[in-house]
Every structure is written in C-alpha cells, then in structure tokens.
Amino acid sequence: MKKVVVLGSLNMDLSIETNRMPRNGETIDGKSFFMSPGGKGANQAVAAQKSGATTCMIGSVGNDLFGSQLITSLKQEGVDCTHVTQNDSTSTGIAMIIRNAGDNRIILGSGANYTVDEAYTSQALQKVANKDDIFLTQFESDYDVVLHSLAKAKSQGLFTVFNPAPAKDIPETAYPSIDLLIVNQWESEMLSGIYPKTDKDCEDAIQLFMDKGVSSVIITRGAAGSTYGDKEQVIFVPSFKTNVVDTTAAGDTYIGALVASLATETNMKDSMTYATKAASLAISKQGAQESIPYKNEIDQFKEVN
Fold first, then answer.
1. Residue 164's closest CA among 154, 173, 174, 156?
2. What pLDDT sits at residue 108?
3. Which residue out of 133, 179, 252, 299 is catalytically annotated?
4. Residue 304 pLDDT level (bands cut at 50, 70, 90)
5. Are 1 and 263 in contact (CB under 8 A)?
6. 252 is catalytic
C-alpha cells in the first residue's frame, strides 16, 4: 500500500450551536458547546488513517495545552506525528464554529500552522515519502509553503492531491504540479468563475482546470454528489441519504477516505463511492475527527430510507 503524507493545519475546534445566526452587533444565546480536535490537514490525515492508510502528518502546533492534545489525538489514531513540531513563539491554531440547522460558519485563527517553512517541508518529504506515495495538502498552511510543497512532492514522483480550501488564487505556474484537484462548488467558482450546478457546469470547470495543467479534478456538490474528470473520462457518483447532524468535517472525511482508497490502487469510481459513504457517516455525528468513521463502518454503510 502507498503511504499518505499530509501537509496541513492542526486546530482545536471551539464549537457552539445557535437557533439562528447573530446579526451585526448582536449577542444571542448558544448551547451544546464542545471542543474537538480539528484542522483540515489533521482531519484529512485522521480520515485517511481510519480508512487503513499509513499516514504521516507534517505541521506545527503551539507549545501549549491545545497543541499537546492535538498531537496526542493524532497519535491515538495511529497517525505518524514525527514531523509535527511544537512552536514556542505562537499558540496552537483554533477554529471558532457556529452551528445552525445542520450548517456551520467557521472563523480560523492560524496560530502555529503558518510557522512551518519551505525548508522544513522539503526535509520532511525527503525523509518520509517514496515515489508514488500520495501527497495531500490544503490552504490552511502558509500560502507559499503549500505551493512549494506541491512542486517538491511532484518532483519526487509523488501523486499530488490539492484541496485549495479556504479558497485562494492559485498561480498559473502551480497547476501543473497538481495531479488531482479537489474543490467544492464555491472553490470552483472562485478559481474558475464557474459555479457548477449541473453536470455540464462540472465538465466545463474540469476542462478549464485541465487546460491550466491539472491532470484530474473532482468537484464535490454536497447532496448532489461528486464529479470526476480527466482527459479520458468523466465519472459521476451520487450522494447517499443520511440524517444530517453536523457538516463540519464532511469534506475532509471525503478527501481523506478517497486518498486512502486510492492508496490501495482501487479505481477512481469505487474510491469516490467509498469516500461518499464515509462523508455520509461523518455528517450523521457531531464534531470533527470524532465523527470520522473507520473502514469497517464505511464498508457496512447502509443508506437511510
């Protein structure tokens, strides 16, 4: 099996539920507050590990209580944290999450996530990654470091997977370093100008990204399923019905489960179906990493009637 190497964020999620979103300058009551290990990078690493992939995390936390808790949580799931540093000069990253009616709003405090530099990521990749391993990253780490790491991983012969979230501009020179770009509808619109509502919209956006140099693309559309495209094929996988409780880690679960499946050389359609089941299970529970299902749960998934 191929190894999954994740460069990304580790955050402590501080989550609270409200009956409605507050207006400007308004204070309202909340309920069901909880803290949960999170961060897109860590979530995706946990999702990959829970699906059976050997997973290594590259990142940084503060030398504080939250940082120690996040590293412990990853290690308990089996993620290799050899290349997760504890920084004395800044605090651990946090995410402030407001939950309402099964949806959420998130504000990030990057903290130590932005302290990982290009030299460190290059050294880590050199030590842990082998040719054909899978490299996965997002935009919750330093912008230039993320782009550098994609080029570095590509040059080492890794299969590079990029989830550009939160959405930021990608320079034209970076697209050829991406083997698989995974975006949701909002990220697609921000990067391509196309908000993909229909299958034709998805195909147009996918073609635009491939024209820029990306080898393949997945567009996720929530309840409308996901679409994959490369120069040879287009694949559509529908969503599954489930009871929605909390969507916080849905996208991260999908991506982590997908790369874990691809690491076993499972074909793309079956990997997408597996990832869709994983995300469906994740949104039926509250929280981030604790909501991510294990492989045996995904294999036994039953759609809600």
1. 174
2. 87
3. 252
4. low
5. yes
6. yes
